[in-house]
Design a protein that fits this description.
This protein has 2 domains: 69 residues, no CATH class; 157 residues, no CATH class. 23% of the residues lie in helices and 33% in strands. It has 4 helices and 14 strands. It is rod-shaped, with a radius of gyration of 44 Å.
């Protein structure tokens, strides 16, 4: 484009206006005379054209070299065991440190009557009234001064009842008192209560399995009718042992086996069985 402009100026330099401008530029002094002569020179378009050709050639050769390296090596040239990077290497991925895993402990048991005055009654169903219930207490113990006690989130209980005849019944989600869902959180130092088994008289023993994974009362958008489902009954007979495991996600936070000891007065208590070494 610049070459065409120079040629056009040289072609019309004999016009009165252009000639006058070039003559005035020449009369301004040595510099003006040099510029006026340069613009009139027939070699100027050739010099500009050669310079443009050289710049174009150099640009294409540089692009070809970079593209060849990228295609041949994928951006990285490998010489022996040394990596030579055409660009900065990716930053290494550092392993993320996981926080401390909480551990829970057994904090005792009770054998209580679910009568109309018992504060535990709202955690049970109408058909459970006048039953005796064996409850187990679990705690998230506080750690030493200056140490962080992690919260155990979404803990569910698995119970496995066994008989002396090697018969087993598994409960995947035990019933936490005061909780509609089958899981519960343990804050630092907090104690939670699990229903282990219930008994009506000397003829019927059963436990509860909670299948509720969410509480419909906590939905942001609720319909006019909310249906609530209580835990289901699982009958028990001749079982003398129960294994209790407390699980959060894939981590087991507590596991132990208890004997179900029946007293002469009909009460049932938990007796922790020593772990086999």
């Amino acid at each position: 484009m610049l070459v065409l402009v120079i040629l056009a100026l040289q072609a019309i330099e004999r016009w009165t206006v252009i000639a006058t401008i070039l003559q005035e530029l020449k009369d301004t002094g040595p510099v003006g005379a040099f510029l006026s002569g340069l613009l009139r020179s027939p070699l100027l378009p050739l010099a500009i054209a050669l310079a443009a050709i050289w710049l174009t050639y150099e640009g294409k050769r540089e692009n070809h070299t970079e593209g060849g390296n990228s295609i041949a090596t994928g951006g990285n040239a490998r010489i022996g065991d040394i990596n030579v990077y055409a660009s900065a290497p990716p930053a290494p991925t550092l392993p993320q440190e996981e926080g401390p895993v909480p551990t829970l402990e057994f904090a005792g048991d009770e054998w209580v009557l679910l009568d109309e005055t018992n504060p535990l009654l709202p955690s049970f169903r109408p058909e459970d009234i006048r039953s005796h219930v064996l409850i187990a207490k679990f705690r998230n113990p506080r750690r030493g001064v200056g140490q962080t006690t992690p919260t155990a989130y979404g803990v569910h209980a698995q119970l496995t009842f066994r008989s002396s005849a090697k018969k087993e019944i598994g409960i995947h989600h035990g019933h936490w008192l005061g909780r509609y869902e089958h899981f519960i959180d343990f804050g630092p130092g907090e104690t939670r209560i699990l229903a282990v088994l219930l008994s009506k008289g000397n003829t019927l023993s059963y436990t509860l399995e909670n299948h509720n994974s969410f509480d419909p009362r906590k939905r942001r958008i609720r319909s006019g009718i909310t249906v609530l489902h209580g835990p289901t009954t699982v009958l028990l007979s001749e079982f003398n042992e129960v294994e209790i495991a407390l699980i959060s996600k894939q981590a087991t936070l507590y596991a132990s086996t208890f004997g179900l000891d029946v007293g002469s007065d009909g009460t049932t208590r938990l007796r922790e069985v020593p772990k086999k070494t």
